[in-house]
Every structure is written in structure tokens, then in C-alpha cells.
Amino acid sequence: MKLKSIIRPLVFIVTLLGVASFLEGRAQTTSVVRMTGVRFAYPLVEHWIEQYNKVNPNVQILIEWRGTQDPSQYDILVEAYEQSEEIKKEREYTYIARYAILPVANSTSAFAKTYVTKGFTTSLIKQIYFHDIFADKDKEQKITAPFTNYTRLQKAGAPIVFASYFKYEQKDLKGKGIAGSDEHLLKAVLRDSTGISFLPTPVIYPKSAGVAGLTVIPVDVNGNNRVSDDEKFYENGLNAIGRLSGIDSKDIRNIPIEHIHLSVDKKSASPEALSFIRWIVDSGQADLKDFGFLPAEHHEKQQP
Description:
Layout (H helix, E strand, L loop, with lengths): L1 H28 L1 E7 L4 H14 L3 E5 L12 E4 L5 H4 L2 E16 L3 H9 L3 H8 L18 E5 L4 H9 L10 E3 L3 H10 L3 E6 H4 L9 E3 L20 H9 L11 E9 L5 H13 L21
């Protein structure tokens, strides 16, 4: 009895030591990859991380949420607009998807009910969204419905891309500046019965469905200065993304479309970060439409 009473605790201790040794070994082999960047890409990135960890459980990929500045440490940067040539000298870029920016309005507004039928021409877009005393006024579509414009307060991808597409800068955008992310801009429009703005498709169509209470305003896609019925295809994300993906980008008018890209430091990129990016290129593209993204173009740029 005494021998058994001694052996059992010893077996238990040895077992614990073995488990501790195993866990220690696991901890030592787990690599950490930190990502940060544009917030509207996070739902897709989180999905990719979940799928990637099923086949690569020893790599821990973390999203470091950015505030007014990027976190002090990160391995992969997710961005929604092209950086300067000076910045590009230091980083390697992989273009993984595209997104479109569409005009939106609170669904209860008289403005939404009017323009979901009439749509926006180029001149109307410039008249509604930009400060420009020289811009042509659309005399055939005099704006009578009340509206309140909202835009991003800080420098950000969507307003930079939207303004640049129409030959302006972000500072030229009209509207009340909203601090925070594109999701905060969405909330501001939904709270105001006269609210309008513009938003990226991943914010408008989370998980394919459109946001309740938000109306996408159709635009003159083919550039003939009117909006026909076949240019009104925004009832849900799958239809909108499918239609936009099926049109050559050179033939799309009045809809800014830009790439989402991942970048790493050319000198210090970790093998784990590069492996995750390669997996996204090889195995993550089928998920794009479900999260409001279009496929990337220029496939020769894909491989990091």
C-alpha cells in the first residue's frame, strides 16, 4: 500500500511535467504575425485568419487596431489606396482585391426616394459632394429634396479615393466631418433622416446583405449622362458585386474602384507573414464577393 501511495503521485507529477513540456514546446514553435490597416477589410481578414489557422495552427495572426496612427509594431499593412512612390520604395505590395465606392442615403429620406429612381449623373455627383464654384450645375435635375452630407473627418482611404476619382482632394468634400472609421460614417447617415454620404461596398454589403435603412443611389455607369434601369443593380451585395465585376473597369463611369493591398517591409518581412499572404492569393479569393469585394486586377502583381 505504501509503495502504491508513492507511485501514484509520482506518475501524476511526471504526467504534469510531460504536459508542461509539451505546452512549452508548442509555445516555442508558435509564431506571431501582426496586421493593421483599413478597418472595413477586417471582417474579410478575420475570416482568412480563421481559415488559415485550420491548416497552420502554429501561426498566430493578430489584428492590431489602428487609431489616429498605426500601431508601433506590425508585420502586414492592409491599405485601401495607393501610397506615394517614396513609401513604396521600402515595402513590397500584393494586390488582393478591389472595392467600389457608392453614394448612399438614409432610406427614409425624401432624397433617397427621389434619387433611387433618378440616379446621379457626373454633374450631380460633383454638385452634391464637392465644393467647386466652377462645377457645372445639372439644370435638368434641380435638387429640391433636403439632404445632409456626411464625410470622414480624418485622412482616410475611401474619401481620398472618392475625391481623387472626380479630380478633387479630400479637403474639397462637402459635409459634416465624422471622426472614426467608415462604420461611424454609416451610423451617422442611419441616425439622420436626411443623411447622405458615400461608402465602400464592404461597409454597404456586410456578408452580402445590404444594411437595413441604407439606400444605394444608382449612377450613370456607362457615361451617357442618364441613369437607365439596367444601371440599377444594388438591391444586394452579390448582385452589385457580380455586375461590377463583370464590367471592364475601363468602361465604368462615376464609380471609383480601388485595390486593397497588403504590404510588408522589404528588409524585415517574416517568412510567416509572406506565407500568409501567399495563402490569401492561392486560397482566399473565393471569399471576396461574400464580403463586398471585387477580384483584383493585374494578377502579375499578386505573388509577394
